[in-house]
Write a structure and sequence with these properties.
- It is a single chain.
- The chain is an alpha/beta fold.
- It is 39% helix and 18% strand.
- The chain has two domains: 56 residues; 155 residues, Rossmann fold, CATH 3.40.50.150.
- The N and C termini lie far apart (99 Å).
Length: 218
Amino acid sequence: MYWRMTKHSLQKKTLFLLFSFVLEQKTQVYLFLFLSITIYLHFIFEKIKDTLYIMNNHSRLLKKHNAVQFKDDDYETPSKILNDLVQYLPEGIIYDPFYCNGAVVEEWEKLNRVCINEKKDAFSWKPDNFDMVVSNIPFSIKEKCVKLCIDFDKPFALLMPIDALGSKWIKKYFDKLQFIIPNGRYSFLKNGKMGKGSWFDTMWVCYKLNLPSNIIKL
C-alpha cells in the first residue's frame, strides 16, 4: 500500500515537473517571439521615421508638384554653388525663371553678377533683356523647363538630379547639351541658413555654353 502511494506521488511529481518544463519552454518560445516582434516593429518604426525626416527636410524632390508658376519650396541656391559656373558663363545678365523667395539675386550679387528673378509665371513671362539662363529648376517638370530654355535659344545652365540622364525625354536634346558634374553633393539655403548636404547627386545641364568638353567633372 505504501509503495503504491509512493509510486502514485512520484508519478504526480514527475508529471508536475514535466508540465513545468513544457510550460517553461513555451514561455521561452513566447518570450523569443515577443522580443523578435518588438525588434521588428522597432526597425519598421525607424524606417518610417527616416522616411518622414527625408520628406520634411530634403524636399527638393518631394515637395515639387506640377504648379508652373513658382517653386513651392523655400530652398535657394547659395553663391558657393553658383561659383562653380562663373568660369563657364559669358558676360551679361542672368535670368532665373523660377522664383523661390528672391534670395538668388543677392547670391549672384556676391559674385558681382546681375540676375533677374521675378515672382512671375515662367511659362508666360520673360524679361525683355537677358543674356543667359541659370536656374535651380523645379525637379518635377524637368523636361518642360529644358524645353522652355531651349526655346529662349540663349545659353543656359539648369541644375537637376543626375539621374535625369537616364530619362527618355532627354534623348531628343542630348546632341545639344553639355554637362557639368559637381565635386560632391550640394547644400542649399533654407530661410537664409545653409542646410545639410543633399541626399541626391546633381548636375548642371548646359546649352550653348561652348564648354571645352561635353562632360566636365569638377
